[in-house]
């Protein structure tokens, strides 16, 4: 960290410049991609001081004085990356204009998944939330193309091995025949989709509705908002109890975005219902 004469460990400096976590910065240093005052850094013990020129891949890095924490409701069809060679839409481009800080996402959502995702320039925050030992819950609502069998839910909670990889949900519960709630803690790449595919099901709609204490609430798809100080503090403390109850807008098990519920149409001249017969008492 900081020394009495103002020196700062290089990886801390890089994290504060929005490069990523300190561990990610250490990896970049080890790859020889970082230079200080024109000299490529070869080890992890370097400290930098005011006025030093720190470059990553030839581009200057400057620490950012402010910390930014944003929540985005990512729509399907957007990729969680700073760039994409295929030219697909980027989730980061949905953030408001005028943000000068270099932001990166905390926890990915795959291309067709939607829901809550964070963006920040705080590397320590991202590393703490992203580490498997954090214990921070990620809650998903999943709609499948067919009935979700109880065996899938039980197996997911017990732990299921697929192609040598073990996938285990913190909890898995039913909302409807085709709609379930899954809570993960560690979270592996495309974990829910792999488990559903293992049971020959396809989750055609997968939405993350909560990360730790922060619920998606009524945030519209494509919209973002700053995290409150209370939310940031609760995330640093790795709490999972929601700070406020999630809105029904976060529940996709109904008309999806842009759809309108079909009105109930009563038949014309419908005869009044026949009076019910008195219930026959049974004796044994």
The span between the termini is 81 Å
Please provide the count of β strands.
17
Rg calc: 25 Å
Helix % is 10-25%
The helix count comes to 6
Q: What number of structural domains do the residues give?
A: 2
Say which CATH homologous superfamily of the largest domain is assigned: Pseudouridine synthase
CATH class of the largest domain: Alpha Beta
Per DSSP, what share of the residues sits in E-state strands of 2 or more residues? 15-25%
Structural class, by secondary structure, is alpha+beta
Regions with little confidence, pLDDT below 50 for 5+ residues = 245-271, 275-284
- The CATH architecture assignment of the largest domain turns out to be 2-Layer Sandwich
Averaging pLDDT over every residue, what do you get? 82
Shape: elongated
Q: Helix and strand string, N-terminal first?
A: EHHEEEEEEEEHEHEEEEHEEEH
Describe the biggest sheet? 9 strands, mixed
Question: Remind me, CATH topology of the largest domain?
Answer: Pseudouridine synthase
Q: Explain this structure to me?
A:
The protein has 284 residues and is an alpha+beta fold. It folds into two domains: 8-60, Roll (Structural Genomics Hypothetical 15.5 Kd Protein In mrcA-pckA Intergenic Region, Chain A); 69-250, Pseudouridine synthase (2-Layer Sandwich), CATH 3.30.2350.10. Helices cover 17% and strands 24% of the residues. The protein contains six helices and 17 strands. It has helices at residues 10-16, 22-30, 123-130, 150-158, 191-198, 229-236, and strands at 8-9, 34-36, 39-40, 47-48, 54-56, 59-60, 69-74, 104-106, 114-120, 138-144, 160-162, 165-167, 171-174, 179-184, 203-211, 214-215, 224-226. The strands form four sheets. Strands 7, 8, 9, 10, 13, 14, 15, 16 and 17 form a nine-stranded mixed β-sheet that branches. A four-stranded antiparallel β-sheet has the order 3-2-5-6, with no helix packed on it. Helix 1 packs across helix 2 (22-30). The longest helix has 9 residues, at 22-30. It is elongated. Mean pLDDT is 82; it is low at 245-271 and 275-284.
